[in-house]
Every structure is written in C-alpha cells, then in structure tokens.
Amino acid sequence: MATKKRHKKESRKAARLPFSGRNYLLFAIGVLFIVLGFVLLSTGDISISPVLLVLGYCGFLPAAILVKRKQKPNRS
C-alpha cells in the first residue's frame, strides 16, 4: 500500500511544468524588447535600439530561464 501512495506523489511532481507564469511573462517581455529594438533599428534609430536589444537578449531572456518558482513548504 505504501508504495502505491509514494508512486502517486512522485508522478504528480513529474507532471508539473518547469516554468511558471512569471517565466512566460519575462520571456514575452524579452521578445517584445527584441522586436521593438529591431523595428527601431530598421527605421534608422541607433540610440535606443541597441539598448532594447541588449536588455532583451542579455536581460529578460536569461532571467526567464533562470528564475525558479517558489517552493511551497513541505508538510510531512
């Protein structure tokens, strides 16, 4: 009996998605900055577009991958 309960708990943990809503929001902001940076770059603006591209590629996209969800306290 105890092995069946343990197996169910392990399968629930494995079924969770690796990213939370915060990760997807950071990813969307990063993609938005990148697209906006390229649009501004195509219009000839070379003052703000590199800043947006660096923020998108080196700021928001890595943050979207590296930020982890908060762990709930274990009730044993």
List the helices and strands and how they pair.
Elements: H1 2-15, H2 21-43, H3 49-66
Describe the structure.
With 76 residues, the chain is an all-alpha fold. The chain has a domain at 32-69. 72% of the residues lie in helices and 0% in strands. Helix 2 (21-43) packs antiparallel against helix 3.
Brief digest:
The chain has 76 residues and is mainly α. 72% of the residues lie in helices and 0% in strands.
Structural class: mainly alpha
Distance between the termini: 18 Å
Q: What spatial form do the alpha-carbon principal axes imply?
A: rod-shaped
Secondary-structure element string:
HHH
Write a concise keyword list for the protein shown above.
single chain; 76 residues; mainly alpha; 72% helix; 0% strand; rod-shaped
